[in-house]
Amino acid sequence: MGFAFKIILSKNKNLRINKKHLILSLLALSGSQLNAQKTKPYVSEVWVSDLGNGNYKNPVLYSDYSDPDAIRIGDDYYMTASSFNEAPGLPILHSKDMVNWKLVNYAIQDVLPKEHFSVPRRGDAVWAPSIRFNKDEFYIYWGDPDFGIYMVKTKDPFGKWDEPVLVMEGKGLIDSCPFWDENGDAYLVHGWAGSRAGVKSILTLNKMNPEGTKVLDKGIHVFDGHDAHPTVEGPKMYKRNGYYYIFAPAGGVATGWQLILRSKNIYGPYEEKIVLEQGKSKINGPHQGAWVNTQKGEDWFYHFQDVDAGGRLVHLQPMKWEKDWPVMGIDTDKNGIGEPVLTYKKPNVGKTFPIETPAESDEFDDDKIGLQWQWSANENVVWSAKIPGKDHLRLFSMKVPEGEKNLWNVPNLLTQKFPAPDFVATTKVKLFPEEAKEGKVAGLLVMGTDHASLVITNKPDGYYLQFRKAPKAEKGGEEKIINEIKLKSNEAYLKVNVSDPNGICTFSYSENGKTFTNIGEKFQAKPGKWIGAKVGIYSVSEAKVARGGYADFDFFRITKK
After folding, report:
1. Any catalytic annotation for residue 75?
2. 136 in active site
3. Which CATH class is domain 374-559?
4. Class of the 13-36+49-345 domain?
């Protein structure tokens, strides 16, 4: 079957692509994209950004895709985001129109170093990645605050990515972005984590080899934000009309602004201008993101908004250029600084595409679990089994590590992001304790620095349903059984209703799948370490319980009610 690709190059010189390389790359993608397009688009019941009338509402992704970065290659848009210690990591999202996104892959299956991240190290690892296209390959760079700056690349973002390369070793190196100049010279701009480096609020530029696999010098500081732009971080470098630009957020995650730096010399000095702020809008801390332009020459800016338990949500703002400065959002108060929009006309990409959202529900009837799922550490193959032809997911009852009082340091938690401010998650679980008389636990979980769960467990006299809570789990707070009832059998339907404001959770259960009964008190979801709260399933054994045991989950569904 033949394919024709319309190639429209960006007006941005930095984003221009060698036509030969682009054609080869797009042809390589054609097979994997065809497979991706065969499936019917998933449409969420709880959050859809596309309003269906030519307009969209923010956020375009009501999920914790923190520190988003995005690019356009031909007619396709790609996004990645911070994934911290969760595995697999570095999500790859794909869109045809900048509003409707699908989660299609992960760039890394294991977080490096593999052994180090075989246990949860919440909040560490993959910080603020940048995705770029150079010659015929996709590149993603990210900073690990404890180990340095890594790079991973591929010719097919839908397929397997190469093994990551440590480009720059060191403590406190974060928020990295590569840049290839018109003459082929390669650079790397990055920020600093004060918790590791002892300093923050500065941006540093390093020379790289043309392959982008290692830095060639100690770096030069090109901007100091201590005076007017504290906590400047997350730099993204571009070039336009002879100016080098660094897009960098400042002022803090929840309260900051988007800063633009520009210079005719890559090493500066840089002029500065604030171009996006909350102002009188409801969107706090609008910063950290990506400049992307369409095939029709429009400019747009992605950024995130921190909403506490919901995580860092992805917004899309209109953007234009005036006097070689970007103007983002709408300047409603006429102070020369844009403010975020809540609704706007969709980007002009030349066509209209079907409504689609990242998958949430999973019937567990495919050979693999859905891409929305992540583990709390690098996956061990013995944690689960998804046998072809079986319409359930089996989670084995792995022992809780010795001395742990809650789930904070348990690696085999299978969770996904909150998908909306209001939603319901439902699952059906059946517990098989095997030879153990008691102490097998499996069920539904809302995870954060506090966590709560609704589980089935076994005792010598039968099966019990328990509602559990662990306040201050991050600090070792003990998980406690709040409510307990005896079940008629070893299976139950478990449900949690999550609602505004800020993730109020109400748990309920059913033994017939029709009539649900509330259990326990309301639970206030809490964010995790640098991430939003997560919802999911798990199966464990109490620390001193005999080996064996497992739980079968028939489905996991996200619905309105």
Report:
1. no
2. no
3. mainly beta
4. mainly beta
